From TrEMBL:
Residues 3-246 form the ABC transporter domain. Belongs to the ABC transporter superfamily. Energy-coupling factor EcfA family. Its EC number is 7.-.-.-. Keywords: ATP-binding, Cell membrane, Membrane, Nucleotide-binding, Translocase, Transport. This is Energy-coupling factor transporter ATP-binding protein EcfA2. ATP-binding (A) component of a common energy-coupling factor (ECF) ABC-transporter complex. It comes from the Bacteria.
Length: 285
């Protein structure tokens, strides 16, 4: 399912006061089945962009279209219900998404809300719990009693239980240990491929962008300043500094080696195995 933004401008309304434009004239098309990483400096509008995909922020100008459903200024009740079912959103701190007394009730909440029977919801809960790598014994526990990584997995399970067409995850690996983070991102990639989901993640880690995403969107001051294929994006690294964007580890090593040896390696190396192959090809190792 495709996500499209047409001249979207939006802000947060706090009582009578409007915050400055947090999304400013955004045109963006994320094709069905794409995997996009949204990057950019803190406060640039990444989380806000994702919230607009889920109808949590409504444009006051322009429109957001998800599949056949459009959200724009005015009444959106029916569209919002449709969009929330299609777009599974995991927030920046998904732990705060958990609210029920038990893990099972938490995961069942979404499916029940969209008309699934209790028996069926419980069965879905078991399936998705396994998909996020948790044991069924956790179902009767309080979400509050879980570790940070377990809470993150339960929050993701709750979203998967809704069987969304689009998965939108705001910094899904933040604050987790490296292994936990890798497991979560590998799970997301596997679902993305298996279910042909349109997937969007926010991340500050350029190695995640290099390893998992196909496309990259750079946000700055509420605007999309770049939308590109990942490999092409990291080809010319000089421009990245101005957006406060790092370079993936392998690409950074490649540039250092090229500078020190004077030898240009073939291609743009985004991962360490790619770098190793390039070094072998030119005979450096
Ligand atoms: N609930 C809110 N009410 C008012 N203003 C907000 C709210 N949430 C965010 N903003 C403002 O919107 C702008 C963009 O914030 P957003 O959270 O989208 O940035 P971000 O790129 O996700 O940053 P980070 O990398 O720190 O998560 C900021 O100026 C922020 O102060
Ligand atoms: Mg954010």
């Amino acid at each position: 399912m495709q996500i499209s933004f047409d001249s979207v401008t939006a802000d947060y309304q706090i009582g009578p006061i409007r915050s400055p434009r947090v999304l400013d004239s955004i045109d963006l098309l994320l094709p069905a089945g794409s995997f996009t990483a949204v990057i950019g400096h803190t406060g640039s509008g990444k989380s806000s962009l994702l919230k607009a995909m889920n109808g949590l922020i409504i444009p006051y100008d322009g429109k957001v279209t998800i599949g056949q459903t459009t959200i724009k200024a005015g009444k959106n009740k029916k569209a919002l219900r449709a969009i929330r079912q299609k777009v599974g959103m995991v927030f920046q701190f998904p732990e705060s998404q958990l609210f029920a007394e038990t893990v099972e009730k938490d995961i069942c909440f979404g499916p029940l809300n969209f008309g699934v029977s209790l028996v069926e919801a419980k069965s879905i809960a078991r399936v998705v719990l396994k998909q996020v790598g948790l044991e069924p014994s956790i179902l009767s526990k309080s979400p509050l009693s879980l570790s940070g990584g377990q809470k993150r997995r339960v929050a993701i399970a709750g979203i998967l239980a809704m069987q969304p067409d689009i998965l939108v995850l705001d910094e899904p690996g933040a604050g987790l240990d490296p292994i936990g983070k890798r497991e979560i991102l590998q799970m997301i990639t596997a679902w993305h491929k298996e279910k042909k989901l349109t997937t969007v993640i926010v991340t500050h880690d350029m190695d995640d962008v290099a390893l998992y995403a196909d496309d990259v969107v750079v946000m700055e001051h509420g605007q999309v300043v770049k939308h590109d294929k990942v490999r092409s994006f990291f080809t010319d690294v000089n421009q990245l500094n101005e957006w406060h964007v790092d370079v993936p580890q392998a690409r950074s090593l490649q540039l250092q080696i090229e500078q020190e040896t004077g030898i240009k390696l073939p291609g743009v190396c985004l991962t360490l195995p790619e770098l190793a192959d390039a070094l072998i090809e030119v005979g450096i190792v």
